[in-house]
Amino acid sequence: MPAYAERRSVPESNESKVVTSTWTLVADGVSAPEGPTLGPDGWILNVCSFSRPENPRVVGGDIVATHPDRPGDTRRLFNTSFGGVEGIPAALAFGPDGCLYVTDEGHRAILRANDDGELTVHIRSPNGPNDLSFDSNGNLWFTDPWGSDIDNAIGCVYVLPSGERALEQVAEGLAFPNGIVTTDEKVIYAETRTNRLWCHRRVPEGGLGAAELFAELSHQQGVEVQGPDGMCLDVQGNLYVAHFGAGCVRILDSYGTELDCLAVPGCNPTNLCFGGADMATLFVTLDDTDEVVARRAPHAGASIQFCPQRQQHSGACDGWIDFITRSPAL
Q1: pLDDT, tens digit, for every residue of 169-222?
Q2: Dihedral angle computed from the Cα positions of residues 311, 313, 315 and 321, in that order, rounded to the nearest 10 degrees
Q3: How far apart, in whole angstroms, are the C-alpha atoms of residue 91 and residue 35?
C-alpha cells in the first residue's frame, strides 16, 4: 500500500483546504460519515450515522449535503429519527421516482424522502439494511447485516423488484454484508468480516447465478477490525472499494484483480462515490476523522442510476436543488 502523503498546513483564508498533497477536504465535523452519493447540481450528500461529542454540529441520523465548489458549505437536510425510533442511516441512493432512499439500521428499514425531506418507510428488512443500489430497471438491491458477525453469520442480501412489495432473498449466511453495486451483467457485494467480495452473474433466462468469490482483499497486519465497505464503479468497469481499517481505496478490474491502491488520509474509509463536472472526482467518507475528502480518479465514474440532473429538465432536480439550498448550514 502506498505511503500516506504528508499533511500540509494551509492558510485559513484558503477555503479549499488541502488535507494531503493528493486529497482535498470537502466537509469536516460530519459525525460517522457514510453513504456518499452524487446529488443534483453537483452536491455530495452523505449520512451521519452516530452522534459524537466532539462534533456537536450534527447528531446521529442527520443527512447532509456539501457542494465541492464551496468546501465546508454543508447543509443539514433532515434527520431520520422519527416515530420514537433513533435513526442510524448508512447509505443513500436516488430512485426512479426522484426520491432519495436511505438505508436505516435503527428503523430496520429503507426510508424514502421526497424533496421536502418528508420521510416514509419504503420497505422493512429482517435485520437492518446497510447499503443499496438501484439497477437500470428500478429494482432495489440491498445488504442486510445488522447483528451479524463472524460468529453470527446471519447477514443477507435482498432485492425488491420494481413495483413489488415482497423481498426476494439473494444470499444468506454472511458475516456482515456491506457495500453493493449492480450492473446489467452482475451484482457484487462485500462481506466485511471475511474480507471478501462476492459476485452473482445475471443469466440469460433471467435471475442470478450462484455466488462466486470475486476477490479477497489483502489483510492489513495489526488491524483487528477491517474489511471491504462501500463500493462504486468507473467507466472502465473497475471496482473501487473502501477498505475499512486498511486506510485505502482498492481498485479492482472486472475480474477482481487488484490494479491499484489509493491511500486515504485516515484509517477507516467507509464509502465512496464519483462526482464533479466530468465525473472524475472521487469522494470518500472517513469514519475516524469525520471528514469527506476528494481527489482526481484514474478514470471517470460510471453513470449513476436516477440521479436527478439539470440537463434532464427534471422537476425532481429543481425541487431537490431548492430544498438543499434553503436547508440550514451547519
Answers
A1: 999 999 999 999 999 999 999 999 999 999 999 998 888 999 999 999 988 888
A2: 30
A3: 4
CA distance 309 to 303: 12
Retrieve residue 189's grid coordinates. 457485494
Domain that holds residue 195: 24-224+298-325
Task: List, in sequence order, every residue forming a beta bridge with 142; answer none if it has no partner.
Answer: 132, 158
Q: Specify the pTM.
A: 0.93
Residues in the chain: 330
275 strand-pairing partners: 281
Which pLDDT tens digit goes with each residue over 247-288? 999 999 999 999 999 999 999 999 999 999 999 999 999 999
Give the total number of structural domains in the chain. 1
Q: Which CATH number characterizes residue 212's domain? A: 2.120.10.30
- Pick the closest to residue 32 from 9, 1, 54, 5 (CA basis): 54
Strand partners, 250: 241, 261
User: Could you tell me if residue 158 is inside a domain?
Assistant: yes
